[in-house]
Amino acid sequence: MTPSMPVRVLSPLFHSAVAELPVSSHLSDEVRGSVVGLDGAPGWIPRVLEAAARGAVAAVVAHPASTPVEDLRDLRERVGIPVVVDRPRVRPDLVAAAEAAIAAGRPAHLISVDGIAPTPRAATALRAVAGWMRVAGGGAPRLLAQDAGIALLESPAGIPITAGVILAAAGPVRVRVRVIGPERTTILATSLGVEVSRESEHGQTILPALHESTTRVALRRAIDAVRTGATPSDLDDLVADAELAQELSRIIDVTDPGDRRYGVA
Question: Please, which domain of life does this record's source organism belong to (predicted)?
């Protein structure tokens, strides 16, 4: 029987996740030799590096705050342990389901991504938009041109990508993705979860909702990474999304208040 993995919880978000994984994990008071669960409040990168320096075998970061791309690159180079990032609007289990649905509906002719967020959370929305463009397009998209708030992007396979971001006075962060081809795949990501549906000549199919919490998914993936020696792609994906979001932030005035639509085509 595989031994249970010690987990040092530094955020209350992970108490339930450990309790729900009683066979594969247990609480520990020690950082050394443990998977460490941290919240993603500002300053989370130094806390991850500190955990690694104190002997943690992996780190899980819940709901990471936006940080400069340079700091993310530095973390990726220095950390030396698996890092799993819990991004509820780009949760990996539904990313896999979405990728399968998109593949079934290919060849895609157009990818459309729309985001909406209150101005203080614009950076969060931009990174979620960037993440879903990467997923839907099969890799990080390329920004081809921009002019007066308009940009043209292209997937690695040459599929055109259009996107828009609405900065609202208030409200939640939402991202909607539409992959248009012989069939249409629609992805709606909110704070309540991610919904994936497919439309074809035979009607609409909505993929089953996943009820496992994102923190439990993240903890389970970190434990698997330690046991298998695999390196999660979370930091690579986050860096790629942050780089694209940084490019988009130069096009979209994220400080503008009120309800105004910005095209990113």
Answer: Bacteria
